[in-house]
């Protein structure tokens, strides 16, 4: 089979290259009418994110940012718990993500789109966004430290929402942290234990501790719980079968909000990319 003929059979393309290439490769695929699942971040900044979303809508082609967290069974239960009202009025989200990123050029060099916010901070931001329904915060207050290449090796951000709601989001690329998240309401709290971005457990108010077994496979993976990537693959397949051009688990409008929050945080910390 020729490459051209093979390419015609391709329905969807997964883009998992380094951050600065996401924009160009996503545009190329969308232009050819191919559905795209693009690894987070969808773009280096808000401008790039909006560009590819506008192109996807113009071409009427499926596009999804690959925030795999949204597709985990634990996140499904999290959404159900939030909808049930068991927490009462939800007031605060706290998410901490710290791991050793400074040893990798991909995450420590500016020309490779490095920094903790785009690489791991997106998970903190998406959780706050999920809890507060994709709402834009009224205010973002952030600080952190830059490495010698001018990208942040740590960040601490406070997101202020209306009606007494807030979020505290911390990233670190030189220290391993608890990597847990808490969602706090007037009647109790939900704990998303370690690896809150790809969890296999959830501690709830109404049902206690829940455990979610990952699919069994004979293959090995580079990162913990990486077999869970199949959940977002299944979500893309489901959306395409239903004729959708975006996923209800990761809507494009919310992708823009997440990008706006991340850009606000990193610029306050002092990170400016060539794409800016």
N-to-C span: 42 Å
**What CATH first level of the domain at 70-213 and 250-269 would be assigned?**
Alpha Beta
Q: Overall 3D geometry?
A: globular
Residues in helices, as a percent range: 25-40%
The gyration radius over C-alpha positions equals: 18 Å
Indicate the CATH architecture of the domain at 70-213 and 250-269: 2-Layer Sandwich
The count of helical stretches stands at 8
Number of strands: 11
CATH homology-level superfamily of the domain at 70-213 and 250-269: Dihydrodipicolinate Reductase, domain 2
Q: What structural class is derived from the secondary structure elements?
A: alpha/beta
Notes on the protein architecture:
This protein has 276 residues and is of the alpha/beta class. The protein has a domain at 70-213 and 250-269: Dihydrodipicolinate Reductase, domain 2, CATH 3.30.360.10. Helices cover 34% and strands 22% of the residues. It has eight helices and eleven strands. It has a six-stranded mixed beta sheet with strand order 5-6-7-4-8-9, covered by helices on one side. Strands 1-2-3 form a three-stranded parallel beta sheet, with helices on both faces. The model has no long low-confidence stretch (mean pLDDT 95).
